[in-house]
Amino acid sequence: MKVGDLVTLSSYALKKSDLWLWKNELERGKPLIGLVIRAEENPYTRPWTSKNESVFYYINWVQNGPASRWGNQSYYNKHQGYFLRNDLKFVK
Predict the structure, then answer these.
(1) Which of 14, 35, 47, 54 to pair with 64, CA 20 to 30 A apart?
(2) Distance between CA atoms of residues 92 and 88, nearest Å
(3) How far apart are CA 69 and CA 22, in angstroms?
């Protein structure tokens, strides 16, 4: 995945309790499409860090979308949070 790719939330992300609201929106037929605006290496990697957790992806949603992989909790509502690779899938 690289900057400029169109993405949406994967089924892995929608199973998380933090993103249950977005699962309901998608089931109602409302599309959730975002653009990858930045990809950064995880500054807190350890030798046991998985490949999934090694890169942070920042998404700019076309319409209203979650602030981060933790949903819209108050802290992440004000700041741009990140998503992991397993949280996202490509849009065709």
Answers:
(1) 54
(2) 13
(3) 11
Q: Dihedrals φ, ψ of 32, to 5°?
A: -125, 100
Listed in sequence order, the DSSP H helices in the chain are: 11-14, 20-27, 74-78
Q: Model confidence over 25-60: pLDDT tens digits?
A: 888 888 889 999 999 998 888 889 898 889 999 999
pLDDT of 22-32, one tens digit each?
A: 888 888 888 88
pTM of the model as a whole: 0.83
Residue 82 corresponds to which tokens in the numbers above? Answer: 């990140």
* CA angle, 21 then 22 then 28, to 5°: 100
